[in-house]
Specification:
By secondary structure, the protein is α+β, with helices and mostly antiparallel strands. It has a domain of 44 residues. The protein is 17% helix and 22% strand. The protein contains one helix and four strands; from the N terminus they run ββββα. A four-stranded antiparallel beta sheet has the order 1-2-3-4.
């Protein structure tokens, strides 16, 4: 497995996040067309999870539709 360099990645988090950082995930959805890195906002130097773009899109669609986990 290859390591992916995320050091210059632009991360964003939900506008619903509080200003204290909160319990949020950060997403780098403009990193690459086929993958979406996701990380814990409380541990930005920690590992990131890498999702296929289609899987991430399906997840976001389900959350927006109110389907809980």
């Amino acid at each position: 497995m290859r390591a992916i360099d995320l050091s210059t990645t632009t991360w964003r988090k939900s506008s619903y996040s509080n200003s204290d950082g909160g319990n949020c995930v950060e997403v780098a959805d403009s990193f690459h067309p086929t993958i979406v890195p996701v990380r814990d906002s409380k541990a930005p130097q920690g590992p990131a999870l890498i999702f296929e773009a289609g899987a991430w899109s399906s997840f976001v669609t389900a959350v927006k539709a109110g389907h809980g986990l």
